[in-house]
Amino acid sequence: MPEPAITLYRLQACPFCERVVRLLQASGVPYRSRFVEPMHSDRDVVKRVAGVRTVPVLVDESTGVTMAESANIIEYLEATYGEGAAPSGAEPAVAEEGS
Fold first, then answer.
1. How far apart, in whole angstroms, are the C-alpha atoms of residue 63 and residue 65?
2. 92: preceding bond cis by omega (within 30 degrees)
3. Rounded distance between C-alpha atoms, residue 64 and residue 5, angstroms
């Protein structure tokens, strides 16, 4: 099975991250989770990817979009994938990786 096009950089128990996760799961959009360091100053991976150290950060390789801020991510996902609709032919999948 190919890797999902969407990667979500997130923290455990982050309410803003969980909003995005809930939408991805409800929509059936395949994604992979990358859990980042809890200490803001240690989030070098997120800084390299998005230019910020805040989470959530979404990277969508199928469209070339990288963005932060949960409200923006939710708006993007709904506009791009439609509320409740997975990309055609895609099976819902989640791959979780550590930091």
1. 5
2. no
3. 10
Helix axis angle, 15-27 relative to 70-81, nearest 10°?
A: 10
- What tens-digit pLDDT sequence spans the chain (99 residues)? 678 999 999 999 999 999 999 999 999 999 999 999 999 899 999 999 999 999 999 999 999 999 999 999 999 999 999 855 444 444 444 555 554
Distance CA 34, CA 66 (A): 14
Asked if the 6-97 domain carries CATH number 3.40.30.10, the reply is yes
Q: Which amino acid appears at position 91 of this protein?
A: E
Separation between Cα atoms, residue 36 and residue 2, nearest integer Å = 23
Query: What is the helix (H) or strand (E) element at residue 70, kind and residue range?
Result: helix 70-81
pTM: 0.82
